[in-house]
Design a protein that fits this description.
The complex is a heterodimer of chains A (461) and B (211). Chain A has 461 residues and is of the alpha/beta class. Helix content of chain A is 32%, strand content 17%. In chain A, helix 12 links the parallel strand 15 and strand 16. Chain B contains seven helices and seven strands. The longest helix of chain B has 14 residues. Classes of the chains: A alpha/beta (461), B alpha/beta (211). Bound molecules: iron/sulfur cluster (SF4).
């Protein structure tokens, strides 16, 4: 018998029962909730007189539509305001720990789980948000669910699932200078296509992944969904263990070492077999951007707008207001957004600040940094990163999803072009008519300084 | 959801065909954060009209809605089912239903009874003649009757829907058939993988310091 993959180990650990002809019922270790996809789920519980089975395995934060202006600015949109209030009421009623707007632990749901150490190896983690795959960087199985499923998990602490297939994405070699985890994520999506991961859980492997920080691994797992995969995972190693050490959610002292011994078993066995394997050579990567309206439309920042190969490409270029053959370095941007659950962690802000230091945001460009959480924001301020950004002319905001989806007041205006560190470049995602180019924090920073698409080397050279 | 075996209630003759889910609950109601409270939006385009059947004194408190053909077609919004239930309906009788509406209903415990158009017309006539007459719907036997009038018909229902209704199973209910297994698993899991208990104080502050 061959060994088991990381996914199989976590899956097997969580099978409550697998009745003949029905979906497998998986136990959920941690359920993260936020204001937008939970209200009807709670109402469903009330309607049927059901309690939350495990409030102590449920954690709530406000993130999707919180304003990122200073806390003194009230929530002006009445629907958003109501959703935030309802989350508070529901958490109070059902005994769930909540980090509301302004709380020291508040932030984007996929940023706070890891930084609080409640995201741990070998767990099954769900949340009513598709980028829950982020938590897979810790060797856990983490995926997004819908509102009815949120209700199901609240009531039963389980989720019925069909078993997905396994895919290994191997990235080996040396990353060229200026290439970040975000570029690796974009390269993977470019290779797999937006549907290539459908039906699979991906395990990211290889020397590039092993050398990446936890922040970088999270960025890559985060975008698994953009390749259509249900989840992304990375095996546990010393990097994982050292990231978790000392965080509020993990044990301390000898108990931590015991936990770490268990966590280290969450890696694929050497003889494990994947249903599919894909290989990417790190040497072929460069700083990338997306030029179209789906995240697989990827090109090097130093390149040109590609010639369309089909109608979808033509529609994308038309929406994006781009002509084939134009060099990206000649394309000006209006807005630079550094934030979202993909790239708003401390390492992302450090990377951007390194590029920004000593420079000014180009005339006419609006640039904003939205830290992923209050803890990220506080750390950055201790390191003086806020001062670097502010001196350069960036806005320094309160944590939240912000311009990633434009549910709060941070939105693009029609026709505006952004370089954005978020994860979706769909039409209108950042505001009606807005044109989004997905990039790494370093490329976003360089682009803000030069006012047009640029690699970090162009600024720091 | 609660088990539904027998519904004995008065009926209200809506008697319109092609009542789509937009008419049942208009889209402006979809912004709500609640799943309850949709009763106020039920048929809201029609309810301003004092002669609308739901406004007539004779039919106040009726719990069975008697529609026409193709009831509940259109958008997939589950809000339509929520609205009918919230208003107080427990069953809808019609000669046919929108697919998704029927499916959504079965998940929420709203009984959909499908009978021939001729039979439907007879039932409508009975209810109009005697608004206070009681209609009985027996989910287990698949019989709908007005005992007073000696009127009885059978209706067809998928076995899975029938089981769900009789047992009060929704998806959560179906999972909870495995409650024992969940409890056993959970007891073991709580040892292997402690919960969040004790990590945060009641203000959500971390009790253990972070680095
Ligand atoms: S930052 Fe964007 S992608 Fe991430 S959770 Fe928020 S809205 Fe979703």
């Amino acid at each position: 018998m061959s060994g088991r993959t990381l996914f199989e180990k976590v899956w097997d650990d969580h099978v409550v029962t697998s009745p003949e002809g029905e979906a497998t019922i998986l136990y959920v270790d941690l359920h993260l909730i936020h204001e937008v996809t939970s209200p009807q789920a709670f109402d469903g519980l009330r309607l049927h007189g059901r309690p939350v089975r495990r409030p102590d395995r449920t954690l709530a934060t406000a993130d999707h539509n919180v304003p990122t202006e200073p806390l003194s600015v009230p929530v002006l949109d009445p629907v958003s305001k109501r959703q935030l209030e309802v989350l508070e009421e529901n958490c109070a009623e059902f005994g769930i720990t909540l980090f509301p707007r302004g709380h020291e632990n508040q932030g984007i749901v996929h940023v706070i789980g890891p930084e609080l150490g409640v995201t741990q190896p070998g767990m099954v983690i769900v949340c009513g948000d598709s980028h829950t795959s982020t938590h897979g960087a810790f060797g856990s199985l983490a995926f997004g669910i819908g509102t009815s499923e949120v209700e199901h998990v609240l009531a039963t602490q389980t989720i019925p699932q069909q078993r997905p297939r396994t895919m290994a994405v191997n990235i080996d070699g040396e990353l060229p200078v200026g290439v970040e985890a975000k570029d690796v994520a974009l390269a993977i999506i470019r290779q797999l296509g937006t549907g290539g991961g459908a039906g699979y859980v991906i395990e990211y492997r290889g020397s590039v992944i092993r050398r990446l920080s936890m922040e970088g691994r999270m960025t890559i797992c985060n975008m698994s969904i953009e390749a259509g995969a249900r989840a992304g995972m990375v095996a546990v190693d010393d990097t994982t263990i050292e990231y978790l050490r000392g965080r509020p959610g993990v044990p301390s002292g000898a108990a931590f070492e015991d936990a770490a011994d268990l966590w280290r078993t969450y890696r694929s066995d050497n003889d494990a077999v994947f249903d599919q394997e894909v290989t990417i050579d790190a040497a072929t990567l460069s700083p990338f951007l997306t030029w179209g309206t789906n995240p697989a439309q990827v090109a090097p920042v130093t390149g040109i707008v590609p010639h369309p190969v089909d109608d979808a490409d033509r529609r994308s270029l038309e929406y994006m207001g781009l002509a084939a053959g134009v060099a990206f370095r000649d394309v000006p941007v209006d807005v630079v957004f550094i934030g979202s659950c993909t790239n708003s962690r401390i390492e992302d802000l450090r990377s951007a600040a390194t590029v920004v230091a000593g420079h000014r945001v180009a005339e006419g460009v609006r640039a904003l940094v939205v830290p992923g959480s209050h803890r990220v924001k506080a750390t950055a301020e201790r390191e003086g990163l806020d001062a670097i950004f502010l001196a350069a002319g960036f806005e320094w905001r309160e944590p939240g999803c912000s311009m990633c989806l434009g549910m709060n007041p941070d939105q693009l205006e029609p026709g505006q072009r952004s370089a954005s560190t978020s994860n979706r470049n769909f039409e209108g995602r950042q505001g009606r008519g807005g044109r989004t180019h997905l990039v790494s924090p370093a490329v976003a920073a360089a682009t803000a300084i030069l006012g047009r698409f640029a690699t970090p080397a162009e600024v720091t050279a | 959801m609660n088990p539904v075996q027998i519904i004995e209630a008065r009926g209200v003759p809506l008697d319109r065909s092609d009542v789509d889910t937009d008419q049942i609950i208009p889209s402006e109601w979809l912004k709500r954060v609640e799943r309850t409270g949709f009763g106020r939006g039920l048929f809201s385009e029609w309810r301003d009209d004092p002669s609308f059947v739901l406004n007539q004194a004779d039919y106040q408190g009726a719990e069975i809605l008697i529609g026409g053909a193709r009831f509940g077609t259109g958008s997939s919004r589950e809000h339509a089912v929520w609205a009918l239930l919230d208003y107080g309906f427990r069953a809808v009788v019609a000669s046919s239903f929108g697919d998704i509406f029927k499916n959504n209903s079965s998940k929420q415990g709203l009984v959909t009874v499908e009978i021939d158009d001729d039979d439907l017309q007879e039932l409508l006539a009975l209810v109009r003649a005697h608004p206070r007459t009681l209609i009985t719907i027996d989910v287990a036997t698949g019989i709908i009757e007005v005992a007073e009038a000696g009127w009885q018909r059978t209706f067809v229902m998928s076995p899975m829907t029938r089981e769900r209704l009789l047992n009060g199973w929704d998806d959560i209910g179906l999972t909870m058939r495995h409650e024992d297994e969940i409890s056993i698993f959970e007891t073991r899991r709580d040892v292997e993988r402690p919960s969040l208990r004790g990590l945060f104080d009641d203000q959500g502050r971390a009790l253990q310091s972070s680095h």
